[in-house]
Structures are given as C-alpha cells and as structure tokens.
Amino acid sequence: MEEQRNIPRHVAVILDGNGRWAKAHHLPRKLGHKAGCENLEQIVEDAARLGIEYFTIYGFSTENWKRSAEEVGALMQLFRYYIGRLKEVAMANNVRVVSIGDRSRFDADLIDGLNMLEEVTGGNTGMTFVLALNYGSRDEITRGMRKMAKDAAAGILDPEQVSEDTISSYLDTAGMPDPDLMIRTSGEQRLSNYLLWQLAYAELYFTDVYWPDFHKEHLLEAIDAYNQRNRRFGGR
Ligand code: IPE
Ligand code: IPE
Ligand code: MG
C-alpha cells in the first residue's frame, strides 16, 4: 500500500542502457540518449511527487569523454536542449536543481545554462535534483583533497582536526545526506566511479530494465526492495 511505503530520503541512480535500448529498437545511439532524457523528465516529476528529498542522477562521467566525438557531441547537444526542459519540470514541481562534477570542461554556453538552472530553481523548497555531469568520484575526491591540502598549508585548517565530516564538506556533495538507495539500470553491476565515498552504506539495487524503459513502477519496485531489506549496518 502506497501510504505504508517508507520513502528513502536520498536516491541515487546510474542511468545506463540508452545505447542498448537504441540497438534493440534499431535506432542510432543518439536516439537512445534522447529517449533517456525524455524519461528523465518524467521520473524527476515522479520522484518529487513520491516525496524523495534528494534525487541524484549520473548523466555523464569523467570517463565518458572517451566515447566517439560524434556521441559526445550528440550528448552535449541534448544537454543544451534538456536544460531548458528541466527548468520547466523543476519549476512546475518545486524542484531545486544543483549539479555536481567538474563543469569547467564544458563549453561556456553549457556552463551558463547550468548556472541559470541552479539560479532559477534555487528558491524551490521541494526535492533537490542533483545532476552529476562530468562527474567521477575519484576526480571529486582529488579536487576536494587538493583544496583541503591548500587550506591546511594556508593555516585555515588544522590537520589534527580533519574528520570524516571535514572530508565530506570538501566534496561536491557537501551538505547533502548520503544516498540510502542506489539504483543502476540495464544489468551492469558496478559503480563506475559513482559517489564512492557517499555510497558507503547505501543499499544497492540492480535491474535489467534499460533506462529509457525505467518508469515510476520500476522506481517503486526498487523502493519496495529497499524496504524489505534489513538495514542493520554497523553493529550485530
Ligand atoms: C547511459 O547509457 C548514458 C550515458 C552513459 C551517457 P549508455 O550510453 O552507457 O548505454 P549502453 O551502456 O551503451 O547501453
Ligand atoms: C556510467 O555508465 C556513467 C553514466 C551513467 C553517466 P557507463 O555506461 O558509462 O559505465 P561503464 O563504462 O559501462 O562502466
Ligand atoms: Mg553504459
């Protein structure tokens, strides 16, 4: 029953399988990515309505630059277009959008678009939608630790006082709760450099469904599986 469902506070997703979805439909890969973006619009709205507080999506990894120039170019074009769509969805659903990852490698207009998206939605008080773009966990930790080392060298930070919370505060996800549930679509069972520090205690859920076919019912299945697990981490 819907009302008995315990909704995890933070759900993180690795959206995977756009390419395989396209192949299965005899379409070019870029149409798989387009279908994936369209699905994202809907699922953001679904997640917000379910009462998820933080919803983080892996949209483009630091490793994804190694794909063909054609595919990377098509993805950048899609991001440009979907920033506008996402703004509409976010405003209609009281969703605040923030991005994590190293934006500096993107073209200036894309960086401007992301800044605009964060600014325009910044006052929304519902779900926080976190877009991981040019994100890699090792890159995030490296950037964070470089900054931490600089602060220590500058005398702003006492090395003896460095705690787990200090480290968290130097990551792109500073201030956000750790994910409770991590979902990866499309059958692959690996983390692919996603939120390695933050997922320390998350429940991991894998489904064979390709991302463009992953709808609200599948999100609910994942949440139900999460609820059936025994969350007894640490002791006993
Ligand atoms: C996920 O779909 C989208 C991105 C990584 C940008 P893929 O493009 O990885 O799809 P598959 O794994 O080839 O099916
Ligand atoms: C992970 O998917 C990255 C994103 C979803 C953005 P990939 O499809 O790129 O991961 P690997 O290469 O199969 O590990
Ligand atoms: Mg993939």
Q: By CATH's scheme, which homologous superfamily applies? A: Decaprenyl diphosphate synthase-like
Span between termini: 30 Å
Order of helices and strands: EHHEHEHEHHEEH
Percent range of helical residues:
40-55%
Please name the CATH architecture. 3-Layer(aba) Sandwich
Low-confidence stretches: none
Count of strand segments: 6
Global structural class: alpha/beta
Explain the overall architecture.
The protein is of the alpha/beta class and 236 residues long. The protein has one domain: Undecaprenyl pyrophosphate synthetase (3-Layer(aba) Sandwich), CATH 3.40.1180. Helices cover 44% and strands 14% of the residues. It contains seven helices and six strands. The protein binds 3-methylbut-3-enyl trihydrogen diphosphate (IPE) (2 copies) and magnesium ion (MG). The site of one 3-methylbut-3-enyl trihydrogen diphosphate (IPE) has 10 residues, from helix 1.
Question: What's this, in brief?
Answer:
This protein is α/β, with parallel strands linked by helices and 236 residues long. It has helices at 18-24, 29-50, 69-92, 108-121, 137-153, 164-169, 216-228; strands at 10-14, 54-61, 96-100, 128-135, 181-184, 203-206.
